[in-house]
Fold Histidine ammonia-lyase.
Amino acid sequence: MHTVVLETSGTTAEEVLAVARGTARVELSPAALEAVAAARGFVDDLAAKPEPVYGVSTGFGALAVRHISPELRAQLQRNIVRSHAAGMGPRVEREVVRALLFLRLKTVASGRTGVRPEVARTMAEVLNAGITPVVHEYGSLGCSGDLAPLSHCALTLLGEGEASGPDGTVRPAAELLAEHAITPVELREKEGLALLNGTDGMLGMLLMACADLARLITSADVAAALTLEALLGTDSVLAAELHAIRPHPGQAASAANMRAVLDGSGLTGHHQDDAPRVQDAYSVRCAPQVAGAVRDTLDHARTVADRELAAAVDNPVVLPDGRVESNGNFHGAPVGYVLDFLAIAAADLGSIAERRTDRLLDKNRSHGLPPFLARDAGVDSGLMIAQYTQAALVSELKRLAVPASADSIPSSAMQEDHVSMGWSAARKLRTAVDNLSRIVAVESYAALRAVELRAAEGPVPAPASRAVLAAAREAGVGGAGGDRFLSPDLAAAEAFVRDGRLVAAAESVTGPLA
C-alpha cells in the first residue's frame, strides 16, 4: 500500500488524489513532527502571558474583543468546533471529505498552526482507518476558510458527531474511533481554530476537477477528430505550421492529438461532389483552438493549486521567530477565481461538442449521412433525443458558468464583510465536470455511429478510429441499427469516456496523447 509522508514543505496534487481517491496511508515525517512541536511551544509560551492573543486567549471573529481566562480555554476550543459544525443539506462525497481532512493535516504539518503533535497524529489515524466525517453541502462562504465543512471534520476528532467507516455506514464518530483504538483529542489553546481555518475543501475539489478535466479534454480531442472524419472534413487545418503561428501551447497540443487520431484516414478531405466545401464549419475547424484554450486555462488553475499546496493557510499563524500573527491568507479568492474560470471553459468545451453532434444528425449539414443517423428515418428516430439530452446538459453548463466568486455576503456582524464563495464555486464545478463527461460521451457515441456508417460504404476510417470503435463495442456501446432503448447505450458511452477507455483505445494506435 502506498504511503504519503507529509513534510513541512507541503504536498503534491498526486499525493492528495492518492489519499482522497485511493488507499494511500498518511504519515508525518520526523521533521514535520519536530516543527509542529516547536510551534506548539511558542503557543504555550503566549498562552501563559497575560496579554490577549487572537485564537489563543480571545474569542473569535466579531467576538475577538473578549479575553478568555485559562480555565475556559479548552471549552472555548471545543465550543468553536461544535458551534461551527453547522452544515446543512446532502452529504459531501467521501473523496472530497478525505481531501479536506488531508489538506488540513498538510497545513498542520507545516509547523505554522501551533497544534500539538498528538492532534496531527490523530488526524492521520482517522484517515488511515478509513473514517470519513459527515460533511454537508452548505455552510462555507470560502473565507475564514471552509469553516463549517472543516468543523464537521474536527468534530470527528473529538469523538462527536457522525462519520462513516470503511463500509460506508454512518455511525456515531465515538464508536468508530473506539473500534480503531483512536483516542479522541482534548483541544487546547488555538487548536480548535487551527483545525477550521483553511481553503482545504475548495482546494481539494480543484485538484480533483483538474485531474478529471485533463482526461476530458483529451477525450474531447478524440471525439472531435471522429466527428471531423465522419463529416468528411479536412485535416489540413490541423497542420502544425498553422498552429505554430498562433503559439498557444494548448492549441498546438489539441491539434496534434487530432492529427494523430486521423492519421491514415480514408475519409478526411473527401468532400461531396454535389456540395463542395472550401472549409469546414467553425465547430469542426476551430476544435483545437477551443479545446486548446481549455488546456491553457487548466494549466493556469494547476499553477494556482500548486501554490496553494505549498501554503500554510491559518489565522493566526506561528512564524519561525515565535510571533503569532493575524493575517488574511484564509481568503479563498485565488482558488475561487480559477474554479469559476474552469467552469466557464468547461461550458464552452461542452457547447462546441454539442454543435458538432447536431451537425452529425442534420441531413442538411452532415454531407450524406442519414437523418439523425437513423436506419429508417421516420420509422426510426435515431439519435434525435440523445442530442436533446446533450443540449440540456450544455444549457446547465452555461448556468453553472456564472461565477460564484463574483458574489459576497457579509457575515459575523460585519467583521467578515467580504467572502470568496470559493466552496460554492468548487461544488458547481464538480457538477459541470460530470455534465461535460456526458456531453463528450454523446458526441463520441454519435461520431462512432457515423464513422461506422461511412465505413459500411467502403472508405476505411483511420486506424485509431477503428481501434476506438472496436473498444466501444467491447465496452457495450451499441452500434448502428434500428431504434432501441437508448439510455443504456449512452450510460455505457459515458463510462467509456469517464474511465479513460476512449483515450486508451486511441492511444493503442497513436501512442500517448497530450
Observations:
- The radius of gyration is 27 Å.
- DSSP finds 19 helices and nine strands in the chain.
- The chain has a mean pLDDT of 95.
